Amino acid sequence: MASTEWKTSACILCECNCGLKIQLGGDDGRRFTKLKGDREHPMSQGYACEKAHRLDFYQNNPERLTLPQRRRADGTYETVDWDTAISEVAARLAQVRDTHGGMSIFYYGGGGQGNHLPGAYAAATRRALGSRWRSSALAQEKTGEFWVSDRMLGAFTRSDFEHCEVGVFLGKNPWHSHSIPRARVTLKELSKDPARTLIVIDPRRTETAELADIHLQVKPGRDAWLVAAMAAVLVDEGLIDDAFIDAHTEGVEAVKEALSQVAIADYCAYAGVDEGLVRKAARRIGEAESVASFEDLGVQMNRHSTLVSYLHRMVWLLTGNIGKRGSQYIPTPLLSIAGGDTGRVSPVVGARIIGGMVPCNVIAEEILTEHPKRYRAMIVETANPAHSLADSKRFREALEALDTLVVIDVAMSETAKLADYVLPASTQYEKAEATFFNFEFPDNGFQLRPRLMSPPDGPLPEAEIHARLVEALGALSEADLAPLHEAAAKGRPHYAGAFFKHVMSQPRLAGLAPVILYRTLGPTLPVEVREGAVLWGLALRFAQKASASLARAGFKGPPPLQADTLFQALIDTPSGVVFARDLWDEVLGRIGKPDGRIQLELPDLLAELATLQDGVGGDGLATDPDFPFILAAGERRSFTANTIIRDPAWRKKGGSGALRVSTDDAASLGLRDGDAVRLTTRAGSAVVAVEVSTSMQQGHISLPNGFGVGFGGLDEASGIAPNELTSIDARDPFVGTPWHKHVPARLTPVSTRPAP
Ligand code: SF4
Description:
CATH architecture of the largest domain: 3-Layer(aba) Sandwich
Structural class: alpha/beta
Bound molecules: iron/sulfur cluster
CATH topology of the largest domain: Rossmann fold
């Protein structure tokens, strides 16, 4: 039966997490019958794109798991009750820990685009097991940017597109991939205003490029040459902000010297962009009052990805574009998900660990070996690495080689199908949820989304799963919790004192704090937000380091009081609250480098820059004549997302997941829309339908993300799973991020229609 009550929640399909109002209905009252943007959401302010309206396909997935699954010897699964599943999983993981050490238990995932609380609770399970190594999708996308940003600025930056005079998007199509609040509104405003300029650097004529004043249509994989040329123009034409450089940076002389070696005309020619247009763009950047610039997967999953991240920063730093309205800023997130190099390396192949994450492309190598420190067991939570990581075939082999694989998820994903145990989780609308993608400025918002409905019989929220695992591992007893239960009954001021006395002063318990909060503070909270208990601890930590930001947002008093007031506001305000209010003139004070000075000179990346000279030459895109095309795998389109919606019917259009091919290539191969073509890479081969597209340039082909998952009991998945075609060794030499946007490929028509 339909209800006319609008309930408050959010979209979970991209990092913006736009606030939503949802009406429930259907026979069981669990269907999403109406959805609209939530005007009270502090960041999205009523905005939502077309994808959000199809979220019922996520919530009402007919194939969701309801009870724990245990793998039989023949590879089939049997249902077991929760007590059996938890005790057996705990025993299996404890055995791996006791035999090989907790470091041999690897954790992957912890959250997707809309759900980061599972990762917070998993920290307790990992502590109970002594598990140290972990990773997530961030380590195949963002760790190059994190590494460079940390080395140059000691901080992670974001950009103010709402107020910039010039907006630059590098390898990004925010029309579909968003990442900034109200992306399409902001893009249109930027595009329409004659006093402002939108610059897009992309090999495709994307929807954003269509709006741009300047589209630098770089040849695929040659962004490094183009961005090097842009930075060199700044030096060549005297466009550097010398006053800013003198006041706030170190190492400019080495950078100027390196950029003066760049053969601008040759680099532009090799990048496939008219030198005059490159100079025009660089000049516009150099002369603007403010420039906001955003790089994304088009360059971060491409050749020279880390070098491009460095050169990109150089462009806006040399022109003084940080710390002023409309430029770059250092946000105040509730919990930082970015991080730098701690000096640690992975235990088998010695890969650099950025932000605490093992590079995704080395995980299989760290399992498929006889090395004594190899990973022997894995917990995969709210993630599907058998589908989402490079070279799926190799990754499946790795997962099958583990002693124990435990998957926590809502559905029988490609990864779950390889697990020893699958623990069914509540959907994101059956428990409280939140994300730590909070990067806005000067006002930054956070939403603790209350659950819209209780879970059906069977699935459990991840908080409950981790609490049971920690207890089954013997790490936490009722005696540990008793003082906190007593204090919680007297109110949160009493609870705070007891928490510090009994938990934070005891290292054994401090690492289990998330689960302790869930078990003791959680029952005192409204049931709709119970899984938000961990945020009380995070709010306390936040208040200690960002008291001034909190105070400006209206949360006054000493940090413990600020934290508690913020926590209560999150509970009371389902649309979310502004939790930090910042000042532009404080940004440069957040530079986390010696003397607060930005480090422009990174010798290893300047050495990499020098090698570009050797690569200049030739017109062909491909370096291997057997693979004359460059495949960009994982394009965001109108109805693509990650694989959390498994039913292909959710796509209102683009349901075949067609391969986009340029008009020139289609003509030379005799292809028209809908024709089938065999797409072959070094890693695999697949037959796919073609879409002839004017957005593509010759030699460049593109597959969407989110396809290739099984549904409806069919063996054949819908569309192509991109990682059946990618290679594990095609990765950045510094941080191991994969080159999914630069996969050498060839096309062979398998059928064409007769000419009319
Ligand atoms: S997919 Fe669209 S509605 Fe959903 S969070 Fe992203 S921008 Fe918002």
